[in-house]
Amino acid sequence: MTAVRTSSYAGASIDAIEHHYDVGNDFYRLWLDPTMTYSCALWEEGDTLELAQMRKLDHLIALAGATGAERVLDVGCGWGSLLRRLVERHGVGHATGLTLSRAQADELSGLGDPRIDVHVQNWADHRGPTPYDAVISIGAFEHFARFGLPRSERVAAYRRFFTHCRELLRPGGRLALQTNVKGANVRLDRRTAAELRFVAERIFPQSELPWPSEILEASAKLFEIVSFRNDAAHYARTCAAWRENLEARREEAARLVGAATAEDYRRYLDVTVGHFRDRHLGLLRIGFERV
Using CA atoms, how far apart are residues 83 and 104, in angstroms rounded to an integer? Predict the structure, then answer.
């Protein structure tokens, strides 16, 4: 299926998404956990990275009320760990994934599970044959408003997403959202500002993190919030685990993507640990119910 960007879509372009997520599946496999889950884990003491990632998936599935559901949509499905968890562990009849990364879609094309289908498609263009019981989106919301837009346009872009999710859901259906946000600590020295600019320009071009208040404003009167938590410390720990994995396999990474790109990613993971620790960044997990 061809990826199409609608005229009303205000998020990062397909080229910008591919700049990050199409670096190479084998490269990401070096430093992510075995399930290729590329988003903040949910940690308890003694966890391995993989166990913490599965706990995160289970938490968001519970927030969405998706266990035992007939149809669930995953917006920004990555390499498919949530899709597999839904059908293999939570009894979901059919799970649909959306991605703008052709590399991710290629990886998922070999699943061979009739309960899962994946589309290279913008969420704004997606229409299901019947309403979904639940929608889950993990780590994609950060790309839904392009860098540099004024607040009013960002909120409008986010509201289009919430409106579309509401239209896709059955009455009483739930949306579980996990996203990075700007943190409460806005005191930035020159070094911190430069580090954040590096991540924005070299790793996630065109993408803009929302303020928590923008999410609340954009979803008002469309969804009721049933759960809200900020797990910034969990993302600091997740990025530290990824950084350690990448450092341990630095030579392999350089052979796969080149020394410069491998170093960019090591630096990105290293500085991101500090930004979540110091609350320049936050990590929200929010449960919404359609009203």
Answer: 13
Report yes or no on 5 lying in a domain.
no
Structure tokens at 176: 């579980």
Output the domain CATH number for residue 136: 3.40.50.150
Output the CA–CA distances (angstroms, integers) from residue 98 to 6, 58, 79, 82, 173, in the order listed: 15, 19, 11, 12, 19
Which pLDDT tens digit goes with each residue over 184-207? 988 878 888 898 888 888 888 878
CB-based contacts of 150, cutoff 8 Å, min separation 6? none
Predicted confidence (pLDDT) at residue 115 exceeds the cutoff of 90: yes
Give the type of residue at 4: V
CB-based burial label for 58 (10 Å; 0-12, 13-18, 19+): middle
Residue 247 phi/psi, 5-degree rounding, is -60, -35
As for how many domains the chain has, the answer is 1
